[in-house]
């Protein structure tokens, strides 16, 4: 084959593969940002001032079939917040003993129950971390970077919570005993 035609052949082969994948309907589950939740309404137990709670509620409202309940009594499911913590640890020091790098962590623990208190999803801990280089000459900029990294972890955390909620199995109805034969 002519050396000048080889790049064009590769380009058209790659274009053919992409068109083939797009034509078959292949799509990652949840890649369009919506999830099929196994409940119709949910109570999210966050304070009104919680940024994580606000973002989670906004993402749950984006799913047309889910209603955010104001009280736990009227909801099909209840997300119970067990703990939420942000942390910062020294990851490395320079030769003068000053901080060179931090490890930022965000840990969230929750469980999900149904309206009767039966556990739909046991205590689940999600732990996220990011490395952040540090410089004493840029303290304000590094603080802003840390806040940006925490917001990024919060968005990632919301997506992980949504995926876990969507993967839950609804509580099986209690089996009713068969009438005794006389």
How is the secondary structure organized here?
Blueprint: H1 6-23, E1 41-44, H2 51-62, E2 67-68, E3 77-93, E4 99-114, E5 119-133, H3 139-167
Parallel strand pairs: 1-2, 1-3
Antiparallel strand pairs: 3-4, 4-5
Helix pairs in contact: 2-3
Pfam family, one: LptE
Subcellular location: Cell outer membrane
Keywords: Cell outer membrane, Lipoprotein, Membrane, Palmitate, Signal
Q: What would your notes on this structure say?
A:
The chain is an alpha/beta fold and 182 residues long. The protein has one domain: Double Stranded RNA Binding Domain (2-Layer Sandwich), CATH 3.30.160.150. The chain contains 3 helices and 5 strands. Strand 1, helix 2 and strand 2 form a beta-alpha-beta unit.
CATH class: Alpha Beta
Average pLDDT, to the nearest integer?
A: 84
Which spans have pLDDT < 50 for at least 5 consecutive residues?
none
Distance N to C terminus: 88 Å
Structural class of the secondary structure composition? alpha/beta
Could you describe the largest sheet, including whether it forms a barrel? 5 strands, mixed
Helix share of residues? 25-40%
CATH topology: Double Stranded RNA Binding Domain
Hey, roughly how much beta strand do the residues contain?
25-35%
CATH architecture: 2-Layer Sandwich
- Note the run of SSEs as H and E: HEHEEEEH
Overall strand count: 5
Major sheet: arrangement of strands: 2-1-3-4-5
Which term fits the overall shape?
A: flat
At the fourth level of CATH, the homologous superfamily is Lipoprotein like domain
Number of distinct helices: 3
Counted up, domains total 1
Radius of gyration: 24 Å
């Amino acid at each position: 084959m002519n050396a000048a035609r080889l790049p064009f052949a590769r380009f058209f082969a790659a274009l053919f593969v992409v068109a083939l994948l797009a034509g078959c309907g292949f799509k990652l589950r949840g890649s369009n940002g919506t999830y099929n939740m196994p409940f119709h309404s949910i109570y999210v137990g966050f304070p009104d001032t919680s940024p994580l709670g606000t973002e989670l509620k906004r993402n749950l409202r984006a799913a047309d079939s889910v209603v955010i309940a104001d009280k736990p009594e009227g909801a099909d499911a209840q997300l119970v917040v067990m703990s939420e913590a942000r942390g910062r640890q020294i990851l490395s020091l320079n030769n003068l003993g000053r901080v060179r790098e931090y490890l930022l962590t965000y840990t969230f623990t929750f469980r999900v129950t149904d309206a009767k208190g039966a556990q739909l999803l046991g205590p689940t801990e999600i732990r996220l971390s990011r490395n952040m280089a540090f410089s004493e000459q840029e303290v304000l900029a590094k603080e802003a970077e840390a806040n940006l990294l925490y917001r990024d972890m919060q968005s990632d955390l919301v997506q992980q919570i949504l995926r876990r909620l969507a993967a839950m199995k609804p509580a099986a109805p209690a089996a009713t005993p068969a009438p005794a034969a006389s």
